[in-house]
Amino acid sequence: MNNIAKVGIIGGGLMGKEAASAFGRWFALNDYPVAVELSAVCDLDEEVLGWYEQIPSVQLITSDYEQILASDQVDVVYVALPHHLHEEYYIDILESGKDLLAEKPFGMNLQAAKNIYGAFEASSSFVRCSSEFPFLPGAQRVIAEINSGRMGDIMEIHAGFLHASDLNPQKPINWKRQSQFCGEIGVMGDLGIHVIHIPLRLGWQPRRLYSQLQKVITRRPDGQGGWAESDTWNNATLTTDVNIEGKDIPMTLEMKRLAPGQKNSWYIEVLGTEGGVRYSTKDTKTLWTFRRGEEQAWQQIDLGFQGPFPTITGGIFEVGFPDYFMQMLAAYFAEREGSLNGRFGCLTPQEALMSHHIFQAALESKRTQSVVEITY
Ligand SMILES: NC(=O)c1ccc[n+]([C@@H]2O[C@H](COP(=O)([O-])OP(=O)(O)OC[C@H]3O[C@@H](n4cnc5c(N)ncnc54)[C@H](O)[C@@H]3O)[C@@H](O)[C@H]2O)c1
């Protein structure tokens, strides 16, 4: 008989519903050690709460998050709230003794992340932060290729996450485009953890960086016939140095909301003296690998469905966002149970804190127009 983990969601919007839908088809996972059940949800929006009424396992629907923290029907809380609320809510959850699956960016700035980290250290809660792209079959193959040692000495790393929907100047304002709710780090807070998770896990911590941050579209329709200030950084390019085996290796990190032609393109490319590997969600089924030889030739490999956790889905089928988001949730609950068994795990609180040191250094670099050493 499997163990059962009971989950409460705080913040039932876009990502809360995505998580609820993954829990609703948990039986798609084969031979998985933990049953997961969504038992409670909290949101302030009645319409959002109404959506959760269709889920039979949900017993508690509330606008008072204290009820989630007090409920003996909740072991783990998944929080998908605007960034200015992360600090208060994460700390309250940790003080309640429940486990936490946090959303990025794990606080709206470095100080908030430090405060959350302090509460984590003082607790005995299991805490990880959401970051699903490493759980794509293509990303898993990139990690395996790097770990294989077949690439020789690493020479260059490029990673990024590119959106274009903000190119539309008529797109109404929302909380993700206002510093008071999403933090001064702007696009870095929204997209940065997705870009930095794999490099950090591989030990590639930037030592110094130079940032190029851009504010291009600075006001948007407020949805009521007027205009509102949109004061966040739209695009960020960080040129960094990482130390690999005693050498400085260039690593560029791109996070853009204004990237023409890019709907939701996450990519990583690593080049070594003997080989290279490249993957982008722009072409979800394709892994590119390079081997040094007579010809300069990249090989294209057609990917199937294989994630780190086996599912009922056929191995030749295509993967989509709900699939790798579910694989990430599976990694969270497996690790919490002590059953990760060497697989890639969710972003740790230490890694989330490191990402904030990088974003803070990027703000400092922009302010001083200079290269900034990063201290962690
Ligand atoms: N992992 C990913 O790929 C991914 C994608 C998008 C967003 N996110 C992250 O998820 C989090 C939420 O983003 P979203 O896109 O779901 O936002 P959203 O705006 O769609 O949902 C947020 C929800 O929180 C509710 N809310 C606001 N204040 C509240 C409060 N005090 N108490 C209870 N509920 C409250 C809102 O009513 C809304 O339903 C953010 O941290 C964001 O960065 C992650």
TrEMBL record:
<feature type="domain" description="GFO/IDH/MocA-like oxidoreductase">
    <location>
        <begin position="141"/>
        <end position="277"/>
    </location>
</feature>
<keyword id="KW-0560">Oxidoreductase</keyword>
<dbReference type="InterPro" id="IPR055170">
    <property type="entry name" value="GFO_IDH_MocA-like_dom"/>
</dbReference>
<protein>
    <submittedName>
        <fullName>Predicted dehydrogenase</fullName>
    </submittedName>
</protein>
<dbReference type="Pfam" id="PF01408">
    <property type="entry name" value="GFO_IDH_MocA"/>
</dbReference>
<dbReference type="InterPro" id="IPR036291">
    <property type="entry name" value="NAD(P)-bd_dom_sf"/>
</dbReference>
<dbReference type="GO" id="GO:0016491">
    <property type="term" value="F:oxidoreductase activity"/>
</dbReference>
<dbReference type="InterPro" id="IPR050463">
    <property type="entry name" value="Gfo/Idh/MocA_oxidrdct_glycsds"/>
</dbReference>
<feature type="domain" description="Gfo/Idh/MocA-like oxidoreductase N-terminal">
    <location>
        <begin position="6"/>
        <end position="124"/>
    </location>
</feature>
<dbReference type="GO" id="GO:0000166">
    <property type="term" value="F:nucleotide binding"/>
</dbReference>
<dbReference type="Pfam" id="PF22725">
    <property type="entry name" value="GFO_IDH_MocA_C3"/>
</dbReference>
<dbReference type="InterPro" id="IPR000683">
    <property type="entry name" value="Gfo/Idh/MocA-like_OxRdtase_N"/>
</dbReference>
